């Protein structure tokens, strides 16, 4: 406050930011924000003897200290986004590249879903082996068996779901197209044998800290043929290059007339060789089931001798693992009268 003397009198005056009261001798703070918001574009805050303008989050004052301008959060450290940052009015948005999912913290992107068509591979929940990462949307994997294979086998090595069975916290749904579906949310998963394609859908709402999974998939070939002709060829399931496929289970069930016996002759034979034929092999059974007595089990590159059944049924089963492949085998069976039977 200041006092100004004049002829025969005086007058009081207030400093900037204050107003003279009705007694003409005291000053009170002037609330500049009451008049046109103090000239501020957004917020006006009165202070003792002054005021200042401020802006909404995501904006900042211009040089005149009254108007507001948008802050480009993406210009500094990519806005904290793990992958893509998009500036918006007063804010910003993070997004993920295809094949990634946004976690519930809205900034972190982790691998999530995708399309697979390999002989084998692994699939994991986002962040595995760490578990409990919530996803803003379900992760979906689409697995298709490559050409020459007719099924996908899935083995889940680790599945953890901190759920009471309602599947509200987290779940893993496996669909073997076209129709078979299984969902896990509280019990451990093991093996799942599907068709030529398989869909996996994983969900986690981030409230289950012990939620996650790790699975292995492998393309396989499984086929069973009922053979009733008196004479027919049997061959391994080979690809276009002339090699048998991995993970195969190819079975011929020969059903001859009741008065017949069956003779099997191998014409060519080239399989992975092991001392106990435990990897790739052809097994022949004396009957129409693989539980029937085994006539022989063959592998390697030597053509086996002829084998025959004791009655009118025979199973010829070709099995391969996921390791070495070779040219496979070919053979021919003949159903002959049991009377004076000679193979």
Give a summary of the structure in a few sentences.
The chain has 343 residues and is an all-beta fold. The chain has strands at residues 2-6, 9-13, 18-20, 27-29, 43-47, 50-54, 59-61, 68-70, 84-88, 91-95, 100-102, 109-111, 114-116, 120-124, 139-144, 151-160, 170-176, 180-184, 191-193, 197-204, 212-227, 231-235, 248-255, 260-270, 281-285, 294-298, 307-308, 313-319, 328-337.
Helices and strands, with pairings:
Elements: E1 2-6, E2 9-13, E3 18-20, E4 27-29, E5 43-47, E6 50-54, E7 59-61, E8 68-70, E9 84-88, E10 91-95, E11 100-102, E12 109-111, E13 114-116, E14 120-124, E15 139-144, E16 151-160, E17 170-176, E18 180-184, E19 191-193, E20 197-204, E21 212-227, E22 231-235, E23 248-255, E24 260-270, E25 281-285, E26 294-298, E27 307-308, E28 313-319, E29 328-337
Parallel strand pairs: 13-15, 21-23
Antiparallel strand pairs: 1-2, 3-4, 5-6, 7-8, 9-10, 11-12, 14-21, 15-20, 16-19, 16-21, 17-18, 17-20, 22-29, 23-28, 24-27, 24-29, 25-26, 25-28
Task: Characterize the structure shown.
By secondary structure, this protein is mainly β. Helix content is 0%, strand content 48%. It is built from no helices and 29 strands. Strands 14, 16, 19, 21, 23, 25, 26 and 28 form an 8-stranded mixed β-sheet that branches. A 5-stranded mixed β-sheet has the order 13-15-20-17-18, with no helix packed on it. GO terms for molecular function: calcium ion binding. InterPro entries: cEGF, CUB_dom, EGF, EGF-like_Ca-bd_dom, EGF-type_Asp/Asn_hydroxyl_site, EGF_Ca-bd_CS, Growth_fac_rcpt_cys_sf, Sperma_CUB_dom_sf.
């Amino acid at each position: 406050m200041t006092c100004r003397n004049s002829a025969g009198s005086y007058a009081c005056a207030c400093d900037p930011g204050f107003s003279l009261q009705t007694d003409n001798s005291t000053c009170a703070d002037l609330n500049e924000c009451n008049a046109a918001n103090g000239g501020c574009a957004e917020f006006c805050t009165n202070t003792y003897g002054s005021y200042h303008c401020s802006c909404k989050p995501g904006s900042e004052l211009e040089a005149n200290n009254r108007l507001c301008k948008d802050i480009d959060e993406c210009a500094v450290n990519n806005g904290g986004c793990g992958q893509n940052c998009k500036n918006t009015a007063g804010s910003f948005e993070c997004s993920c590249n295809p094949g990634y999912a946004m976690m519930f913290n809205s900034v972190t992107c982790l691998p999530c879903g995708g399309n697979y068509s390999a002989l084998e591979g692994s699939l994991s929940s986002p962040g595995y082996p760490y578990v409990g990462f919530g996803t803003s949307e379900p992760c979906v994997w689409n697995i298709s068996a490559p050409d020459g294979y007719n099924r996908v086998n899935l083995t889940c090595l680790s599945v953890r779901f901190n759920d009471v069975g309602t599947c509200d916290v987290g779940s893993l749904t496996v669909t073997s197209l076209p129709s078979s579906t299984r969902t896990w949310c509280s019990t451990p998963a093991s093996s799942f044998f599907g068709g030529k394609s398989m869909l996996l859908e994983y969900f986690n709402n981030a409230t289950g800290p012990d939620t996650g999974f790790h699975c292995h998939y492998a393309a396989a070939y499984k086929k069973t043929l009922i053979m009733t002709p008196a004479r027919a060829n049997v061959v391994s399931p080979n690809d276009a290059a002339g090699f048998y496929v991995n993970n195969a289970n190819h079975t011929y069930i020969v059903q001859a007339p009741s008065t017949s016996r069956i003779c099997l002759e191998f014409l060519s034979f080239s399989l992975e060789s092991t001392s106990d034929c435990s990897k790739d092999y052809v097994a022949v059974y004396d009957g129409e089931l693989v539980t029937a007595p085994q006539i022989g089990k063959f592998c390697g590159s030597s053509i086996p001798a002829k084998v025959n059944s004791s009655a009118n049924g025979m199973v010829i089963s070709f099995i391969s693992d996921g390791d070495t492949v070779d040219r496979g085998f070919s053979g021919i069976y003949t159903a002959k009268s049991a009377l004076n039977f000679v193979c």
